[in-house]
Amino acid sequence: MSGAVSMLRPAATNPATRPQLTDALRESVATKSAAALELLRAAIAEFGANGELTFANSFGAEDMVLTDLILRERLPIEIFSLDTGRLPAETYTLIADVEQRYGTRLKLYFPQSDAVEGFVRTHGINAFYDSVELRKACCSVRKVEPLRRALTGKKAWITGLRAAQSTTRTGLPTREFDAGNGLVKLNPLSDWSETEVWAYIRMHEVPYNALHDQFYPSIGCAPCTRAIAVGEDVRAGRWWWEDPASKECGLHVKKG
Q1: 253 domain-assigned
Q2: Domain that holds residue 21
Q3: Residue 70 lies in a domain
Q4: Which of 138, 221, 224, 249 is catalytic?
Q5: 20 to 30 A Cα–Cα from 204, which one of 4, 101, 198, 222?
Q6: pLDDT(7) > 70
Q7: Is 249 a catalytic residue?
Q8: How far apart are CA 79 and CA 31, in angstroms?
């Protein structure tokens, strides 16, 4: 796909970000929050509190739940993020908001400039629209390689993945071995629903990406993310021109 890509941008506020906080929902969120904290504390005990355990924060709603849990509870877990160079302006605003809100400085990893320059000079600035192979090559340069640097020397990493997010994440365990990176991967929110994620954010007044209110349930790089229509899958706006079975960037590869 080349040239301009049509993008659906509903103007109304997304009701999914404003769930009704019933007693049952509050209780469910409290129970699952306690379980997530238990998993995180167990990971600290197992892997250490000296930088061997790290959390990959992409600033989606799920990652903001984990960010709040880690920083509010003052857990000794490193937090890092990948700045691909093509993130939406709203994501940079959120990064600044998080640093101010929690009084912290987040660790950002950037792609190697020569690799980005080489990709763009060879294939073009928006080559990722032209084929799945080129899109994955762009992701490899901007995300996968920086992730490998971020995970160097670590024993385990934490993600905000949920099993219900897409067809590529069904059956997601809370703990698995990441063979590609050679370390343990923890998914504390694996069994959380989208409603529970947003209930937590409302209950604790957690900052979140403003694009979520504009029907962006899943947010990545700006040119590869669009708003979705009511009833579409929550990850329909990510690489929307591709088959759902290929919608991963290489950071999280499902085992066969």
Answers
A1: no
A2: 15-246
A3: yes
A4: 249
A5: 222
A6: no
A7: yes
A8: 24
